[in-house]
Amino acid sequence: MKYIVAIIQPDKLDEVLQELEQSEIHLVTVSPVMGRGRQRGISEVYRSHKEAGSLLKKTKLEIAVNDTFVKAAVDAIIKGAKTGEIGDGKIFVLDLEQCVRIRTGEQSTAAIG
Amino acid sequence: MNLKKIGLLLGGLMLSMAIPAFAQAPTVDTGDTAWVLVSAALVLMMTPALAFFYGGLVRKKNMLSVLMQCFFLMCLITLQWVVFGYSLSFGPDIKGWIGSLAWAGMHGVGLEPYADYSATVPHQAFMIYQCMFAVITPGLILGAFAERMKFSSFVVFSFLWAAIVYDPVCHWVWAVGGFLRKSGALDFAGGTVVHINAGVAALASALVLGRRKGFPARISPPHNLPFAVLGAGLLWVGWFGFNGGSALGANGLAANAFVTTHVAAAAAGLTWAMLDWKFNAHPTMLGKITGAVGGLVAITPAAGFVSVIDAIWIGIGVSVICYFAVAFLKPKFGYDDSLDAFGVHGIGGMWGAIATGLWAQKAINPAGADGFFYGNPALLFIQIKAVVVTIVYSFVVSFILLKIVDMVLGLRVSERDERIGLDLTQHRESAYTMID
């Protein structure tokens, strides 16, 4: 089992979700986040006072998958989120130790899908 | 006794010369009364509007503390006003300095007009209209000490400030017998009484309380600019009552004040945006509303004395001056006037009072005077004198009051409470929930 964390451009979320859907990956958690990478942020100015922090709004996806779905998930995210410009985001793939479905108590691969 | 009577007579005589309308016997005019009452309601609205203007600019954790301080003043100062504040401000004069307590508890303040102040509206309508000014003035100060003042100390300070600073200054400038009024100083709707007075007290409080933790580098940006824009918009609307209502009648003078108020705000809002565009590469929403409010402040003393075209100069001037005060003066001296109460109301008010001395004309208001550009340089000096007197009195007395409250109660919350935020530590509430 793997845990996939992807940081993408907020306006690409719909396309990524559509691609995942087509790859039969339905379970995903999405949250709004702030961050910066090579693209850097845009600093804000309030009454001529420049803010030091400069972060951009991004969207984070978290997806738990069985090993056979890892490649499909990563490909789907790339297909949906890629524009070719700096700031498209990153995908992290982590080992997942355990997964439990709260309603039934099922564990591991049975609980994931 | 005889001397007092002669003084009153003389005061009455001077006034009747100044404003011919006072010559006739006082009878209530329905149109005038309707306009003054509506204006009173408009000015009341400015206090919650100010709450949202300021509230949007603080951090999330301090939103309620700002709203609470504003709303608290609506209740506290209203009671102070009817019990004794109105009498101290407008009651029978004692040597030009203060009103006596003869009108305390609304004694003698009835439904008949009181000709010296408003010959055509009930005395009580005039009183409640003035009440709304007394309410918002200490509210303006809180912009300087936002996000770090202990609530109990805020209450004590505001109450004392209203009685010891606002009421006397109001008397000097507006009451029959007040020494600045007698000197010929012009303040149509409160540039000196409200804005300079509060703005200078704000500077004193920023200095006495010290900077917020992390100022200036690590203070988060305004938590909700749309609220600030909403507040500024409502302030603009309310200001028609503030300035237009100060004509105390539904007449041409009210129309002049209404129009100059609107035009000055427009000119100032536009000017600030242009300055932002030039110096910061982008016009900002916050700059736009700051400029507009600055324009409203600056036109306040002048609204009923200047022409529409001269109001444009007043609006342009205030944005240029306040822009540099906020962008350069504050960082240079390093005081933490959190929401620029001094930078906008203090500095803007001073410019407005001086501008009144430049552009006032009798052709607009026979009860006023001609200013510098209309052949009477003397008015400029009278205006400057009134500004200096108010600055000195407000700064010194506010400073001492703050020091006393600090010694007795402590002005600042603890470092821990400041970090957690005033909403939770002073009021046990949160403005926003993170999870439903």
Secondary-structure blueprint:
The complex is a heterodimer of chains A (113) and B (436).
Chain A: E1 2-8, H1 13-22, E2 29-35, E3 45-46, E4 49-50, E5 56-65, H2 70-81, E6 89-95, H3 108-112
Antiparallel strand pairs in A: 1-5, 1-6, 2-5, 3-4
Helix pairs in contact in A: 1-2
Chain B: H1 2-18, H2 30-55, H3 63-90, E1 93-94, E2 98-99, H4 123-145, H5 151-174, H6 179-182, H7 191-209, H8 225-244, H9 252-280, H10 285-299, H11 308-333, H12 341-359, H13 377-408, H14 415-420, H15 422-427
Antiparallel strand pairs in B: 1-2
Helix pairs in contact in B: 2-3, 2-4, 2-8, 3-4, 3-5, 4-7, 5-7, 5-13, 7-12, 7-13, 8-9, 8-10, 9-10, 9-11, 10-11, 10-12, 11-12, 12-13
- Per DSSP, the total helix count of chain B is 15
Q: Biggest sheet of chain A, strands in spatial order?
A: 2-5-1-6
- Beta-strand proportion of chain B: under 5%
Kindly report the oligomeric state of this protein.
Answer: heterodimer
